[in-house]
Write a structure and sequence with these properties.
The protein has eleven helices and five strands, in the order αβααβααβααβαααβα. It is an alpha/beta fold.
Length: 223
């Protein structure tokens, strides 16, 4: 087995292990709380830590899984979202799809649409927030991410965000863009907030935490 195949197999094992850990955790989790779902950019958001530091009594379960594409979240939406019967869900999924030139934008949005539909069918009163994809910074890329960022660039991300916004409107859900504090003067992810142009350091998440909390603390839409 070559190195790339070994790394791929390890990535798949990691995803399976995380999903099973979430499945077990869901057995004792409180129903009707807030859930965050998506790929690594959601998984890496230290929401529980920042909530504790802020003194908030909100309960938020982070069910992000690094490496996930939309098709994978669609298949695991029960464990990552609906088993918890949440009152409110924040989703950030699709950035790994955007990195893959073999996955058409139409396919990404069809999968995303199906994810939302599954959640709504299982938890009819749920409030869903579709989060704008975060910017990237190709100039701050590492050798490992430079090639990826040729495909996943800010122009493509901007087009995708417009489609996510339409999905939110189609489902009468919310589109959320909290990216302002992450961007430099050229609209890129600030270099100081990333190590390789894609993923965000804790300092970056801290920069958007207050904006995120506005939606966490927002009154129920029916009120």
């Amino acid at each position: 087995m070559n190195k790339n195949a070994e790394e791929l197999n390890q990535t798949q094992r990691d995803k399976i292990q995380k999903l099973e850990a979430y499945r077990r955790a869901n057995l004792t989790a409180q129903k009707g709380q807030i859930v965050c779902a998506g790929s690594s950019l959601m998984e890496m958001f230290p929401i529980e830590k920042l909530l504790k530091e802020s003194g908030s009594d909100r309960i938020v379960y982070n069910r992000g899984i690094g490496g996930y594409v939309t098709a994978e979240l669609l298949n695991a939406v029960d464990v990552c979202v609906t088993d918890l019967m949440p009152s409110r869900v924040f989703i950030n999924i699709g950035t790994n799809d955007l990195s893959d030139s073999r996955i058409p934008m139409d396919t990404i949005m069809k999968n995303y649409d199906a994810i939302i539909t599954k959640i709504e069918e299982t938890v009819p009163e749920v409030e869903i927030y579709l989060m704008a994809y975060y910017p990237v910074n190709r100039e701050a890329a590492s050798p490992e991410t430079a090639e990826c960022l040729k495909e996943r660039n800010n122009d493509k991300i901007s087009r995708a965000n417009e489609l996510v916004k339409r999905l939110a409107e189609k489902h009468s859900q919310r589109y959320v863009d909290i990216n302002a504090n992450l961007k430099d003067e050229k609209g890129r992810l600030k270099a100081e907030y990333t190590t390789e142009g894609i993923h965000i350091k804790e300092e970056g998440y801290r920069a958007i935490f207050n904006d995120f909390m506005k939606y966490i603390n927002e009154p129920e839409w029916t009120e």
